[in-house]
Amino acid sequence: MSSETFEPQRAALADVVAIPVTPFAEDGTVDRDTHRALLRRLLDGGITTLTPNGNTGEFYALSPEERRLVTELTVEEAGDRADVLVGVGHDVPTAVASARHARELGAGMVMVHQPVHPYVSQGGWVDYHRAIASAVPELGVVPYIRNAQLTGDRLAELADACPNVIGVKYAVPDAARFAAFARDAGLERFVWVAGLAEPYAPSYFSAGATGFTSGLVNVAPAVSLNMIEALRSGDYPAAMKVWEQIRRFEELRAANGSADNVTVVKEALASLGLCRRAVRPPSRELPEAGRAEVAAIAAGWSI
Q: Which Gene3D superfamilies does the annotation name (predicted)?
């Protein structure tokens, strides 16, 4: 299967790739109605690429049944309004089962989370992704790369074996390393998605990225869209004005090893009355002292 088959998926990756939150009800279960409402808010806000079971969706804190539920809700709400990139991961059989479930529902792509294992060899990284990608040759596959040791030629090796590997969510916080990795793998061969969201989008776009992931988009879709419009037109001063707007919010998310990455997004949504602030361990709700600042930032975006 040639990469030309995946042109719609490639186009969907060259955009704001939204990572929706997973809202929880008072009894701790996934709040289906609120989840649907938040997805509709993203779609109504102009977002056309959704990633259920991403890290902002608390992927690792969800049960297998909940991950399936989140995928189903997202595909249903997206309909023909958005492309769906389903997050899959854990052990190979679990990831393959999740990818096949996504295919059965009609999703067009899967994002493969960085393998969670204390010992990841580069060849083993290829083997892991190859096992998943080859199980769903009809789907576009997007590795989520957080491993700074991984080299671009390994990605090229994977794509030689699995031509459905069409894009990369690159989340190593080093713009120079990203530029080199993309060129070693094949700059034009893949769609490069800046996997560290708006703070890194301008520098990664300057090196060849054409899309970026976003958790902030849950709160203010227009802000994220303003940034990608500026980047697409090559207007870096305009992009950096958006960067200044979102800087403090993203600093709060990134502090202490990103301890409050999801927490701050849900706190902002809670301040707007859109969902409960509840997160699951090992995340934790924001202390009372920090809530007012997050609310003020969200209110300042004129949502």
A: Aldolase class I (3.20.20.70)
Cα 252 to Cα 265: distance, rounded to the nearest angstrom: 10
Which residues, at least 6 apart from 77, have a Cβ–Cβ distance to it below 8 Å? 36, 39, 40, 43
**How far from 182 is each of 115, 222, 260, CA to CA, in Å?**
20, 29, 30
Site of tokens 């992931």: 213
Whether residue 231 contacts residue 277, with contact meaning beta carbons closer than 8 Å, is answered with: no
The H helix count followed by the E strand count for the chain is 12, 8
Q: Which two tokens stand for residue 136?
A: 């769903």
β-strand partners of 24: 30
Single-letter amino acid, residue 21: V
pTM (global) more than 0.85: yes
| Token output for 8 | 């719609």
Q: 211 forms bridges with which residues in the sheet?
A: 193
**Residue at 105: amino acid letter:** L
Given the DSSP bridges, would you call strands 140-145 and 16-18 parallel, antiparallel or unpaired? unpaired
Per-residue pLDDT in tens (0 to 9) along the chain, 303 residues: 444 689 999 999 999 999 999 999 999 999 999 999 999 999 999 999 999 999 999 999 999 999 999 999 999 999 999 999 999 999 999 999 999 999 999 999 999 999 999 999 999 999 999 999 999 999 999 999 999 999 999 999 999 999 999 999 999 999 999 999 999 999 999 999 999 999 999 999 999 999 999 999 999 999 999 999 999 999 999 999 999 999 999 999 999 999 999 999 999 999 999 999 999 999 999 999 999 999 999 999 975
251/177 Cα distance (integer angstroms):
22
For residues 88-126, one letter each, b for 16 or more C-beta atoms within 10 angstroms of the residue's C-beta and e for the rest, the string is bbbebeebbbbbbbbbeeebbbbbbbbbeeeeeeeeebb
User: Cα–Cα distance between 214 and 224 in angstroms, integer?
Assistant: 7
